[in-house]
Amino acid sequence: MGGGGFGQTFEILDQKDKTRKVLKVLLKEHPKAIALFKQEAKVLSELSHPGIPKVDKDGYFTFMPKDESPLHCLVMEKIEGLDLQEWMKERKKEPISPELAMDWLKQLVEILDRVHSLQYFHRDIKPQNIMRKPDGQLVLIDFGTAREVTETIMGFSSNGSGEQDNDKKRATGIVSPGYTPPEQTNGKAVPQSDFFALGRTFVYLLTGKPPTAYPENPRTGKLLWRKGAPNIPKQLADVLDYLMAPFPGNRPQNPGVVLQCLAEVELNPPPRDSDEREDPKSDTKGKKKEQLKAKIHLSELKIKIPFKAIGILSVIVTMGGLIYTQVDGYRRYGLIPANPMLVIRGWPNRMWLLGHKEALGQVYALAIAPDGETLVAGTFGTIRRWGIHSGEVFNPESVHSSWVRALAFSPNGEIMVSGSNDKTIRMWWGSRQRTIEGHTGSVHALVFSPNGQILASGSEDRTIILWDTNGRRLSTILAHDLPVNALAFNPQGNVLASASADASIRLWNVNVGDSSRRLTITGHGDSINAIAYSPDGETIASASDDGTVRLWNANTGEQLRVFEGHRGPVKSLVITPDGQTLIAGGDHIVLWNLNTGEIITTLWGHGDLITALALTPDGKILTSGSEDKTIKIWQLKL
């Protein structure tokens, strides 16, 4: 298929599944090149994203020709379709629409987020290295290849004919005129170099001309390209200029910032005229500006506003919780955000942030009443309640002397319980309360049986205690070697699953006079923080500090699938009532198709670890709580 210098590419037929794949071969021996080739092969094999060529775990191997040095090989998915340069030529370089540009930008930033999360960056983004599949999915190619590895190490760069261009040798070795940023040309590529090349790629797509066709400001180095695309929204052009800032420190510092910018463009599209004049016959825009100003000046949400009045395009936010990169990003490219905490990733108009609540403390527990109307959150010693649909804010209740770590409602909604680091459980029957004692360590988990007759609690003291609905102890199970972090009943109510800091899951019989262990499941490499049964009770999902979510056969303990998509610990987990979607929270929220393992979308917006998730019974609203001291309410239309 091609190659040059140190590597070649071949199309092959996989005899196992009769599919055509790509074989990359490193032809020449060089210790550093081989080391990075192996490293990149490993990274690609760990990535799971429809926009990245798939590499199986055994995709990397060495072949030993007779009397020759070993050949290092990498087999990956063959991507069908055209690259974007070929695609543009087929349409006679007609510029793409702003709407398509927004869709493609989000796709590509999603891909970069996945790549950057593994401490890797592409270094050669350009139209030729982006494939468009027949279904419209974009795929980023030509990273992790032999050619890229050897060029990166050996200072090789192609002049377009496959020959080495010695005049362009640099430490990073990859120079694509018009797309390569200044720092990379000088041998100092950084992850933000990808954003520069991405912005330049969209200049080509939106104007039909390569970036080299436009001059640069001799004083600032800024590309003067906007006259080539007079009909695109100014805010979108602002985002592209932000990506293409000559100095890498003035570009977005991570993909999340880029997605915030795009979300703002999508939710608050400006007029297409560059001067943004308003129609003097209409005061609609003026009213919108006043509404946005009002939202910006809200310092905390202690007001009653019905969610129906908020609407999809009117999201309540606060400015107090902004992290530095958000503020800095908007400051640098000049777009004043109406709702800077909002980040929407994935499909437009399908995942929306409905609301943002200040919890006045780190949030370690969330629960939603069975009627789907009341949200309860636990912070330091305090329980706070909100009306999910009404927006009503209830007075906070100080009920514990330390952090609230667990919350649960009985299935009929008549009882609510809370567990705390103060080693106690509080039980509410309407206005009546009772303190339950029995654990000798922090209470980490609470769950009611499906029939509502048994409450199970899990603790730092390594035990599980079963209680009746009056708070009387029924039995105690010495469950794990380390703290019990999470509990879940199967839908039938006869099996209780526990997850522990000892990295194991254990299943327990829950029958009269029988609390014996049925099964132990292992496979995680670190503490397990959350578990959930599928609605049919056949599978168990678990989330761990090892950065993975895993799916297990609930009857045999066999591992069925590993879900990857977080950069660090995964702290929270839920499965939608229809059993189709798995949702997990860590540094961000990831939604997977439970059956295929494909990532559906990811939701950003929290500034710290997401430690709690809760779904309404109909599965339409997701709530997330974080160590950033906020709660977010998301509408899901899957």
Automatic annotation (TrEMBL):
WD repeats lie at residues 397-428, 436-477, 477-518, 521-562, 603-638. Keywords: Kinase, Repeat, Transferase, WD repeat. Gene3D superfamilies: Transferase(Phosphotransferase) domain 1, YVTN repeat-like/Quinoprotein amine dehydrogenase. The keyword Kinase applies. It comes from the Bacteria. Residues 267-291 are annotated as: Disordered. Residues 272-291 have a biased composition (Basic and acidic residues). GO terms for molecular function: ATP binding; protein kinase activity. Pfam families: Pkinase, WD40. Residues 1-267 form the Protein kinase domain. This is Ser/Thr protein kinase.
